[in-house]
TrEMBL record:
InterPro entries: EryCIII-like_C, Glycosyltransferase_28, UDP_glucos_trans. CDD domains: GT1_Gtf-like (cd03784). GO terms for biological process: antibiotic biosynthetic process. GO terms for molecular function: hexosyltransferase activity; UDP-glycosyltransferase activity. Keywords: Transferase. It comes from Corallococcus llansteffanensis. The lineage of its organism: Bacteria, Pseudomonadati, Myxococcota, Myxococcia, Myxococcales. The keyword rRNA processing does not apply. This is Glycosyl transferase family 28. Residues 298-397 form the Erythromycin biosynthesis protein CIII-like C-terminal domain.
Length: 418
């Protein structure tokens, strides 16, 4: 039996995606330990896993570096990184870990595992990848053309237009002198530039089905896939279904955990409400975060439910369609339950995920800036009229349900632990 540590960027989508893998490791007789901030400890415990918590609070002594604008930000972030790295190293030692699975976005904090010669694999919660002219960045909405010099040129253009995200992260890393760069070199490992900045050149487990990725990425060396990794039994609370009519079709709308922070969110949610107010016979459930109270003031009919938070795994099995932001957690769960999607990406990896879904005929693209209910109605009508999308999504659902990718991913981990 080995003790495996999991450290992810602290956000619910990425963390939830790891629970199926953690449970598969436990079934094989391994012990799993999470490294999470205080705010996420209870959520991990509810799923039945052990964790070590770290504090995100940090006291920094005043100095000239804390008084100069610009320098102050870099100085505080550098000290915070050192604080997290020290806490990570203490966790690795205290829990006597035999190997670690680390989100590639936070590799810099976890570099101490390599200095301790522990098996280290990236646990990638999305379809990000190192730079290559064979495919576009996950930040891009481009669909890679087939082969040839023109295809490579188009991919270069796609990377160039989207490079601000990884370039900013890379320059930021260098500006504050991440200790992680040196630790990787000393361990004989290298870093590669790509989506979200530098990323470790180590074996990688992608939490998603291989079938969704673009073809050139599927055969990258040391890139493995874990399927949808959805746990229908995940403890996210319960939903009050009073007033729901099972004989009428249901639409579900959510922009994810941070969707209510986006500038166009209120206008978008309002347009969706007005569209479904006029759609006879349909029901709508919306998860709107902090905007819920404001949206409830619009004299909603009984067929429209607006909530601050919704247990998505309970709602999706009853949904006929899913309007969402193309967040990777929502995408995985929609594929698991076979729900066609209308996609309204607003940044990060969402344009690239939207491109994959449209490419594989699993959904249609929309514009998050939409504020006209008629546009929402037209896109919903277009999706409902696409029998090929419904059929493709049903086929993807069956493929995901029958997949052995998760177990094969555990095999990969065990080979590296051996």
């Amino acid at each position: 039996m080995s003790t495996v540590g999991i450290y992810m960027l602290p956000e619910y989508g990425g963390l939830n995606a790891t629970f199926a893998l953690a449970r598969a490791l436990v079934r094989r007789g391994h012990r799993v330990r999470y490294f999470v901030p205080e705010a996420f400890e209870a959520h991990v415990t509810r799923q039945g896993f052990e964790s070590t918590r770290y504090t995100e609070r940090l006291a920094v002594s005043p100095s000239w570096a804390t008084r100069v604008p610009g320098v102050r930000f870099l100085h505080l972030r550098a000290r915070y990184n050192e604080h997290l790295a020290a806490a990570f190293n203490a966790w690795v030692d205290a829990d006597a870990l035999d190997g670690v699975l680390v989100d590639p976005v936070v590799w810099n904090v976890a570099a101490g595992a390599l200095e301790r010669r522990l098996p280290y694999l990236s646990l990638n919660p999305t379809y990000s990848a190192p730079f290559s002219l064979d495919y576009p960045s996950v930040h891009s909405s481009a669909i890679p053309p087939r082969g040839g010099a023109s295809a490579r040129a188009r991919n270069l253009v796609a990377w160039t237009f989207q490079a601000r995200i990884p370039w900013h992260r890379s320059l930021y890393d260098r500006a504050i002198g991440w200790a992680g760069h040196g630790a990787f070199r000393r361990a004989g490992r290298r870093l590669r530039w790509g989506d979200f900045g530098y990323r470790p050149d180590v074996p990688e487990l992608v939490i998603g089905p291989r079938a969704l990725d673009f073809e050139p990425l599927r055969d990258l060396p040391h890139r493995h896939y874990l399927g949808t990794s959805v746990e229908p039994s995940r403890h996210d609370g319960t939903f009050d279904w009073s007033g729901y009519d099972a004989s009428r079709p249901l639409a579900y709308c959510s922009l994810g955990t941070f969707g209510d922070d986006q500038v166009p969110a209120l206008r978008f949610f309002t347009a969706v409400i007005e569209s479904f107010r006029q759609r006879e016979g349909w029901q709508l459930i919306m998860s709107c975060g902090a905007l819920a109270e404001q949206l409830r003031s619009k004299a909603l009919p009984p067929s429209i439910r607006v909530e601050a938070s919704v247990p998505q795994l309970e709602v999706l099995p009853r949904a006929r369609l899913f309007l969402n932001h193309a967040g990777i957690g929502s995408v995985r769960e929609a594929m698991y339950f076979g729900v066609p999607m209308l996609l309204f990406p607003f940044g990060a990896d969402q344009p690239g995920l939207t491109a994959r879904l449209v490419h594989h005929q699993l959904g249609l693209r929309g514009d998050i800036r939409t504020k006209d209910a008629r546009v929402i109605t037209e896109r919903v009508d277009a999706l409902l009229g696409r029998d090929d999308i419904t059929a493709a999504m049903e086929a993807m659902k069956q493929r995901c349900r029958n997949s052995r990718e998760l177990e094969e991913g555990v095999d990969v981990i065990e080979r590296h632990l051996a």
